[in-house]
């Protein structure tokens, strides 16, 4: 049977000639072992390393064929042309595989073979050393690849190896790739492609050898980079991973697989260089980008986090990354921000320090509200996206292994602990030291966002996962890092925090053997919020107050000169910078995803706190009943006060800056109300009276807003209204409110006036709101009846203590307020007379400072006096007898007479200052309230006698003057409104509109209160009879602002 040698046509002429000559000479001839004893003259023997190898191959082939077919005539001791052809083909195909994988060759001539690469690097030195061998095999591949990797300019050795007319335009650059690690990665890609081709399956052993050589050389590139002068192989790996994972749309499986296998090789050969030595420089390069190159809006941030995510999929690399992110000083909060991981969290719209630099909201006075809103939206989206990226990055590492989880939580816990000093009062007094010791606002808020993401799985009210929280966690102090890992506690300093109730050591819960991930996330997140969101909110509020002060000063000095002269120019610049910082902080604090995470977390926290107030380690969520059991759970002695403080702080933030978010909570707001009713009136479960007073502020924040002011959706208002009427425990609200009001005075602790002002004001607001709800009013009346029946008791009843404080406060506040108003009048007269112009600059500055201080105190006292007197007015409308009791009547009568005399008598001229509204001084309103109290109690003979018997202040002319004062107020208001522009007047009643709304069909603008009364009897537009309901009217916010601005300006002129 003839043998075809047509397969030779595709090989190069040199190999083809050698094989075809042998074929013509030996065609159709069989050889015996004797004939083949001397194979040196056989051209195929050149394919073997030696003649002995050729003989061994021949014997092996003969044996194999004999075993396969015993029935056939044995080909004993014979090697056919077919055997040698098979050998030749095998050798040539292996050569072809090596050429296609490594793009190197020993055959410099072109061929017709379409499977051969079109361009290769000709290994000339190896060709010479092999004495002209023209093919590559497994014996020389190691040397060939190593020599190829050491070539300085491999592109100079690229030759054309195929004579086909077309070729890949990038073939030459691929073959001549000079970057050694990139070259081996491309070799790996080509190896994978060949391996997946079924026609090469028979060469699996040879392919595996190629793979081993690629990985071993790639490993050497990274561990022994000194072998490759002028090449930064770590930088090559980083660039390569970037191109494959970020900028290309194709999958990343190949680069990930390549990276994993190279890492395995490095780990197996640590003696050549550790994994940390190889990878740490790469991580530091990425960290430098976060620190020096990227800004909040830079898309490179997301790309590089993805790159890091690809690296840390491997547990060993995750460990290296976390070790590389260790701060220089684990006790310095700022040091964490300078690490690789910390730098990822530092990008924000807030500046690193108050001095800048500012990236957003520059020159805010030149921008419209729409411009500012657009900027705010544009910066909030990347803040949320970046936080999500970092969270996913950390979460994937946490799931890798217990060791990696420990390292992640250790970094987070120590970072939070090192920055916990941000929340201390003293830190705000030393801004320079503050910025050296602690992280920036942006870093803190981003870390807060990430920690809230960890808590998201159990951030639902009554989530069963909340029952897994182990209350003793904050009290545990690990002995060392190994102990920390063993018990799952990575917090720091939490054991030093004040807890809800103090307790002796034997009254606390025992420590657990270990603490679960939910517990750690819960407490660490609260500690993080306390040092971040809470602290930034405090700073934000103070900045807001400071801006108001600067604006008032600016308006004052501007009225005296041009904007381009000093000090107007400096004050304007200060105001611009302050507003820029304010807008940056507002954008960061009001980022929607962050706020929603906070809201859900606090709702979950509220439900958990309520259960811990009833029983230790609750096993289920049970319905709360008041009064609570007498036994105080030990858990409360472990729970830091800042957990409750975080919650109250957040509710106040929403009320001030994002009230519409309450609409998102909907009916879930009931959990806040339950928390308030459980803790606000329970000093045995929350010892700190200030915290209980802050719950009263939270209660005020939950009240429905004034519908005339707008700003709340109908659904939000509905849910907030039913809180005060339908909550299961709402019947206890009145008593709880009075209890906390009284407890502020009864603690024996020093409470600054301004702080008391901030506490009492929301309590008055709540009292005024619930007084309009009948069953709350009846509850207060019942407390008054009980107090009157026990008025002589040693332990004074709650309501008696409450009204006693009201009278005491009323006397003190109004007396102080009038004294301050008198001082202001005196200072203003001195200034107007020119006396201040005679002072030197320092004296004048001191005088200005004194006036500002007195003005602030006057404002505080006036506001509180107004609230206090109005509260007495409300109470005396329905509760009379206890005020007229012999132990009380003389005090209240004397108070009323005293202040009426000062406000309408000869001394009233002492309080005539410029712009009473600036100081919240409302004498007509106070007189009106005082007269109403007279009227409320006037039916009591005891009260009338007490009023007329007051020898200090009473006179028969007192009341006619009061009536004149009230009449004067009414006349002033009528006169004010009579001059209002036509567009400000309601077309139906002719009165000044307070809440203008547009009727959708007739397009007329009317006052909301007027049309609301109309709709009660007639659900149609009064101008065209079209159907109309109150939810159809359209608020006219711009007109409303113009009206209120006009009212304020008109009052100021008077």
Automatic annotation (TrEMBL):
Main location: cytoplasm
Record EC number: 2.3.2.27
InterPro entries: Ub_conjug_fac_E4_core, UBE4, Ubox_domain, Znf_RING/FYVE/PHD
Annotated ranges, domain U-box: 979-1053
Extent of the signal sequence: none
Compartments reported by the entry: Cytoplasm
Catalytic activity of the protein: S-ubiquitinyl-[E2 ubiquitin-conjugating enzyme]-L-cysteine + [acceptor protein]-L-lysine = [E2 ubiquitin-conjugating enzyme]-L-cysteine + N(6)-ubiquitinyl-[acceptor protein]-L-lysine
CDD domains listed in its UniProt record: RING-Ubox_UBE4B
Pfam families in the record: U-box, Ufd2P_core
Keywords carried by this UniProt record: Acetylation, Cytoplasm, Transferase, Ubl conjugation pathway
Superkingdom field: Eukaryota
UniProt pathway annotation: Protein modification; protein ubiquitination
Membership in a protein family: Belongs to the ubiquitin conjugation factor E4 family.
PANTHER family found in the cross-reference section: UBIQUITIN CONJUGATION FACTOR E4 A, UBIQUITINATION FACTOR E4
Known role: Ubiquitin-protein ligase that probably functions as an E3 ligase in conjunction with specific E1 and E2 ligases. May also function as an E4 ligase mediating the assembly of polyubiquitin chains on substrates ubiquitinated by another E3 ubiquitin ligase. Mediates 'Lys-48'-linked polyubiquitination of substrates.
Protein name as it appears in the record: Ubiquitin conjugation factor E4 A
């Amino acid at each position: 049977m003839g043998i075809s040698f047509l397969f030779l046509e595709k090989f190069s002429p040199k190999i083809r000639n050698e094989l075809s000559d042998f074929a013509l000479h030996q065609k159709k001839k069989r050889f015996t072992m004797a004939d083949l004893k001397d194979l040196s003259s056989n051209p195929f023997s050149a394919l073997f390393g030696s003649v002995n190898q050729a003989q061994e191959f021949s014997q092996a082939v003969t044996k194999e064929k004999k075993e396969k077919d015993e029935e056939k005539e044995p080909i004993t001791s014979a090697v056919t042309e077919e055997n040698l052809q098979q050998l030749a083909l095998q050798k040539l195909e292996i050569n072809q595989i090596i050429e296609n994988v490594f793009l190197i060759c020993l055959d410099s001539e072109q061929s017709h073979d379409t499977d051969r690469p079109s361009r290769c690097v000709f290994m000339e030195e190896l060709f010479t050393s092999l004495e002209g061998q023209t093919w590559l095999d497994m014996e020389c591949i190691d040397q060939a690849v190593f020599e190829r990797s050491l070539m300085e300019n491999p592109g100079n050795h690229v030759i054309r190896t195929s004579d086909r007319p077309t070729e890949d335009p990038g073939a030459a650059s691929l073959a001549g790739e000079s970057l050694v690690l990139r070259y081996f990665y491309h070799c790996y890609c080509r190896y994978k492609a060949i391996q997946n081709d079924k026609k090469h399956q028979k060469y699996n052993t040879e392919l595996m050898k190629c793979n081993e050589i690629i990985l071993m050389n790639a490993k050497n590139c990274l561990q022994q980079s000194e072998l490759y002068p002028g090449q930064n192989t770590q930088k090559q790996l980083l660039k390569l991973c970037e191109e494959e994972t970020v900028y290309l749309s194709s999958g990343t499986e190949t680069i990930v697989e390549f990276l994993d296998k190279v890492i395995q090789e490095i780990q197996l050969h640590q003696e050549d260089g550790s994994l940390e030595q190889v990878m740490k420089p790469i991580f530091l390069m990425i960290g430098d980008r976060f620190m020096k190159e990227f800004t909040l809006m830079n898309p490179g941030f997301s790309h590089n986090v993805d790159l890091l995510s690809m690296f840390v999929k491997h547990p060993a690399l995750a460990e290296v990354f976390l070790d590389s992110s260790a701060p220089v000083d684990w006790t310095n909060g700022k040091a964490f921000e300078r690490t690789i991981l910390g730098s990822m969290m530092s990008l924000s719209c807030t500046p690193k320090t108050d001095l800048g630099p500012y990236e957003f909201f520059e020159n805010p006075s030149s921008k419209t509200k729409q411009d500012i809103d657009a900027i705010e939206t544009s910066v909030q989206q990347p803040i949320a996206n970046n936080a999500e990226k970092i969270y996913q990055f950390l979460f994937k590492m946490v799931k890798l292994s217990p060791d990696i989880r420990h390292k992640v939580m250790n970094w987070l816990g120590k970072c939070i602990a090192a920055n916990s000093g941000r929340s201390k009062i003293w830190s705000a007094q030393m801004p320079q030291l503050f910025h050296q010791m602690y992280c920036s606002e942006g870093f803190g808020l981003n870390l807060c966002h990430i920690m809230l993401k960890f808590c998201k799985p159990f951030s639902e009210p009554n989530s069963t996962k909340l029952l897994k929280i182990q209350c003793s966690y904050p009290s545990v102090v690990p002995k060392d890092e190994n102990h920390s890992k063993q018990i799952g506690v990575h917090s720091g300093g939490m054991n030093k925090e004040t807890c809800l109730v103090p307790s002796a050591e034997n009254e606390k819960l025992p420590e657990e053997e270990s603490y679960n991930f939910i517990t750690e996330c819960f407490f660490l997140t609260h500690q993080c919020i306390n040092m971040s969101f809470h602290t930034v909110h405090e700073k934000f509020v103070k900045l807001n107050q400071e801006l108001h002060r600067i604006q008032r000063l600016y308006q004052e000095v501007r009225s005296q000169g041009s904007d381009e002269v000093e000090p107007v120019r400096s004050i304007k610049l200060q105001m611009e910078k302050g507003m820029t910082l304010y807008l940056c902080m507002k954008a960061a604090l009001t980022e929607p995803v962050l706020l929603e995470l906070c809201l859900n977390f606090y709702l979950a926290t509220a439900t958990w706190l309520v259960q811990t107030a009833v029983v230790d380690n609750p096993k289920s969520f049970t319905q709360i009943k008041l009064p609570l059991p007498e036994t105080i759970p030990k858990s409360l002695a472990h729970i830091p006060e800042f957990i409750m403080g975080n919650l109250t702080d957040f509710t106040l933030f929403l009320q001030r800056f994002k009230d519409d978010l309450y609409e998102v909570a909907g009916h879930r707001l009931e959990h806040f109300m339950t928390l308030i009713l459980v803790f606000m009136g329970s000093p045995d479960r929350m010892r700190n009276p200030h915290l209980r007073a802050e719950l009263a502020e939270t209660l005020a924040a939950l009240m429905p807003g004034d519908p005339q002011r707008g700003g709340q959706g109908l659904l939000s208002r509905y849910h907030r209204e039913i809180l005060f009427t339908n909550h299961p425990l709402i019947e206890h609200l009145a008593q709880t409110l009075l209890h906390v009001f009284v407890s502020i005075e009864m603690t024996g602790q020093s409470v600054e006036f301004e702080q008391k002002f901030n506490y009492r004001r929301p309590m008055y607001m709540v009292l005024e709101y619930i007084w309009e709800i009948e069953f709350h009013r009846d509850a207060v009346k019942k407390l008054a009846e009980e107090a009157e029946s026990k008025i002589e008791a040693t332990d004074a009843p709650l309501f008696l203590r409450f009204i006693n404080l009201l009278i005491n406060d009323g006397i003190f506040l109004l007396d102080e307020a009038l004294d301050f108003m008198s001082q202001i009048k005196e200072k203003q007269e001195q200034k107007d007379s020119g006396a201040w112009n005679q002072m030197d600059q320092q004296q004048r500055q001191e005088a200005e400072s004194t006036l500002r201080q007195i003005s602030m105190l006057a404002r505080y006292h006036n506001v509180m006096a107004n609230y206090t007197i109005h509260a007495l007015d409300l109470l005396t409308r329905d509760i009379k007898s206890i005020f007229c009791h012999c132990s009380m009547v003389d005090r209240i009568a004397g108070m009323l007479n005293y202040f009426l005399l000062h406000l309408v008598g000869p001394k009233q001229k002492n309080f005539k200052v410029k712009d009473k509204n600036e100081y919240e001084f409302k004498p007509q309103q106070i007189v009106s309230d005082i007269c109403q109290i007279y009227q409320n109690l006037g039916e009591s003979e005891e009260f009338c006698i007490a009023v007329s018997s007051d020898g200090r202040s009473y006179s028969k002319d007192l009341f006619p003057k009061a009536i004149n004062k009230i009449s004067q107020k009414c006349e002033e208001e009528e006169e004010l409104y009579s001059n209002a522009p036509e567009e400000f007047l309601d077309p139906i009643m002719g009165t000044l509109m307070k809440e203008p709304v547009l009727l959708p069909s007739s397009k007329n603008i009317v006052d909301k209160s007027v049309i609301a009364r109309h709709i009660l009897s007639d659900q149609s537009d009064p101008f065209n009879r079209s159907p109309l309901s109150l939810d159809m009217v359209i608020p006219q916010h711009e007109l409303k602002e113009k009206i209120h601005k006009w009212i304020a300006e008109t009052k100021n002129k008077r």
